[in-house]
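Milestone 3.1: sequence recovery, worked example.
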């Protein structure tokens, strides 16, 4: 039975309710019947007292009426008044007899006895004396203008005797007799006072009984409630503890699904079912949370492995998160060790923005995407003083048809733009550099083929064809060298040899190709260098060729070699047209040519110095330039020294 009740809270509540009803109903019914009985008994007693009072009043009034009628008979002598006195005498006898028969208390017995005694004295002595007085006065035996009590006392029966003391009449003393008769009325007043006292006592007793009954009912009710509370307290405490444990566990799970939960011993009722369901739900929640964490971590790791930088901006809070590629893009160290989620970048936002050249344009683009929902355009901006080019586009992130954020994808397109530029310059250079010699070769070939020319012109034409052919060969060689270097297919045969001998050979070749330039060479014959001789000759040959070509008016060309520490420095200086500082910074870019009239007239592919830079860097050295317009140019090559 107990197990069946504990399976449902409703049964437990109803059981408690029924027990409470029983505990309240039984004392209430007992108190009700006890109170009702006391009320009934008191009402019966009050009705009896009321009847006693009414009959006593009626007896007193009959006594008064009998006395008044008797006095009237004495004064007037009418016989009809005496008949009324006789009738009242009968009623008094009946009423006195009722009191004698129904007397229940000592006071009622005393009243009945005294009423009977008074009635007997009055009827046996007073009335006969008064009747004789009326007869004597009618016969002329008494001649008094007014009634004299002494005369009546003489006419009373002399043989009547009584041992009672309260209503003792002395026939010789009329005043005493009159006073004694008046005092007889006090018994009626005393009796009525006694009845009033009894009635008041009954009412007070009833009130006390009702108050006792109420207090008894209240005490019993409180006792029942206290007993019920004591009995239910362990169950309520256990039920409350389980509910509190469930609340605590739910709060902990809301903060951390892996939080340590309060152990709960499930009951057999609905709270127990709730506890078991909660435990199952917490297990499922932990599993789902772990699965979501794994998916989130997997997504974050995938995003972090992307080479494109990503910035996610929340719509409601404006918070920004990014992947690792963004820090690489802005050349900032990643301040986080894990890759389980995107990185907040609020504290890094300003350093990032400081690297952007067009911040206003970038802000306009991002605001259009975030606030106006424009996602069909891209934005390209430069950073770090134009050294890097970034292309950006935006896409909305929506969940259940509600936009929760905007993702911005940033890609470094510097190399792509550089490749496009190189392609453009390659096409322009090749088209120009190829067309000019090919046109010359074709023109001179057609002249030799279709026209008869003398031997001198034929040799000159053939020389021009040979010169333009070598020009084409150099162009093709430069292009092939660049392609091989970019593909990493250049084979190098490093040797240690004398730098003096290497430079002397190169200078000898170029000195014979010009009559407008004077060469100056300073180099310690003991300096040795490690490298590919052919490539090093190609480097210095290109530099000397440029020095000759870009000083068309002739002048001095100095080659100075010095050693500083473990570095060999080769400075090749000319007195040519020179270049500006802006052009000097870009001289080693592929296909870059100075855009002025003198340079355009000289021609070239813009690949020579780029090839030189690749070769020198592959040898562990550096190459740089110093130049001023109309003041000449100095190319400085630094290579590791060899002991």
């Amino acid at each position: 039975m107990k197990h069946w009740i504990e399976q449902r809270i409703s049964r437990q509540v109803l059981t408690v309710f029924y027990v409470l009803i029983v505990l309240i109903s039984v004392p209430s019914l007992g108190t009700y019947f006890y109170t009702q009985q006391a009320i009934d008994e008191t009402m019966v007693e009050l009705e009896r007292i009321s009847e006693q009072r009414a009959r006593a009043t009626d007896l007193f009034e009959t006594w008064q009426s009998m006395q008044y009628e008797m006095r009237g008979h004495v004064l007037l002598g009418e016989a009809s008044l005496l008949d009324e006195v006789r009738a009242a005498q009968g009623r008094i006898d009946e009423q006195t007899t009722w009191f004698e028969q129904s007397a229940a208390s000592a006071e009622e017995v005393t009243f009945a006895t005294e009423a009977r005694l008074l009635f007997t004295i009055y009827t046996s002595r007073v009335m006969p004396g008064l009747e004789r007085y009326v007869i004597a006065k009618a016969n002329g035996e008494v001649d008094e203008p007014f009634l004299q009590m002494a005369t009546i006392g003489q006419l009373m029966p002399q043989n009547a005797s009584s041992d009672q003391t309260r209503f003792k009449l002395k026939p010789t003393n009329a005043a005493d007799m009159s006073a004694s008769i008046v005092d007889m009325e006090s018994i009626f007043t005393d009796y009525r006072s006694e009845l009033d006292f009894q009635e008041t006592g009954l009412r007070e007793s009833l009130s006390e009984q009702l108050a006792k009954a109420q207090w008894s009912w209240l005490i019993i009710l409180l006792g029942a409630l206290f007993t019920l509370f004591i009995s239910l307290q362990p169950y309520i405490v256990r039920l409350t503890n389980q509910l509190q444990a469930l609340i605590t566990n739910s709060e902990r799970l809301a903060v951390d699904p892996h939080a340590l939960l309060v152990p709960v011993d499930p009951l057999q009722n609905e709270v127990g079912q709730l506890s078991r369901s909660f435990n199952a739900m917490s297990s499922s929640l932990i599993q789902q949370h772990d699965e979501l964490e794994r998916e989130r971590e997997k997504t974050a790791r995938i995003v972090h492995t992307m080479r494109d930088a990503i910035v996610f901006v929340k719509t409601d809070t404006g918070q920004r998160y990014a992947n690792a590629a963004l820090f690489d893009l802005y050349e900032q160290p990643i301040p986080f060790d894990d890759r389980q989620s995107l990185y907040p970048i609020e504290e890094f936002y300003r350093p990032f923005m400081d690297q952007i050249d067009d911040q206003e344009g970038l802000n306009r683009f991002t605001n259009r995407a975030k606030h106006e929902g424009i996602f069909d355009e891209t934005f390209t901006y430069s950073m770090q003083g134009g050294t890097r080019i970034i292309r950006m586009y935006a896409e909305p992130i929506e969940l259940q048809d509600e936009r929760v954020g905007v993702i911005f994808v940033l890609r470094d397109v510097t190399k792509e733009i550089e490749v496009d530029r190189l392609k453009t310059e390659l096409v322009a250079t090749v088209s120009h550099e190829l067309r000019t010699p090919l046109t010359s070769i074709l023109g001179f070939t057609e002249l030799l083929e279709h026209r008869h020319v003398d031997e001198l012109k034929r040799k000159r034409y053939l020389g021009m064809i040979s010169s333009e052919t070598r020009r084409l060969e150099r162009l093709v060689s430069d292009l092939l060298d660049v392609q091989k270097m970019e593909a990493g297919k250049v084979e190098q045969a490093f040797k240690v040899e004398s730098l003096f001998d290497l430079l002397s050979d190169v200078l000898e070749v170029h000195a014979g190709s010009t009559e407008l330039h004077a060469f100056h060479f300073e180099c310690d014959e003991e300096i040795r260098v490690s490298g590919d001789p052919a490539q090093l000759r190609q480097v210095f040959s290109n530099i000397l060729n440029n020095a000759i070509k870009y000083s068309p008016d002739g002048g001095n060309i100095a080659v100075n070699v010095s050693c500083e520490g473990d570095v060999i420095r080769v400075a090749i200086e000319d007195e040519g047209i020179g270049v500006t500082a802006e052009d000097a910074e870009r001289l080693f870019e592929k296909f870059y040519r100075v855009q002025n009239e003198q340079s355009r007239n000289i021609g070239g592919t813009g690949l020579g110095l780029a090839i030189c830079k690749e070769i020198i860097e592959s040898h562990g050295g550096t190459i740089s330039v110093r130049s001023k317009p109309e003041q000449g140019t100095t190319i400085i090559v630094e290579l590791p020294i060899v002991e």
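The radius of gyration is 72 Å. Residues 159-165, 171-180 have pLDDT under 50 and may be disordered.
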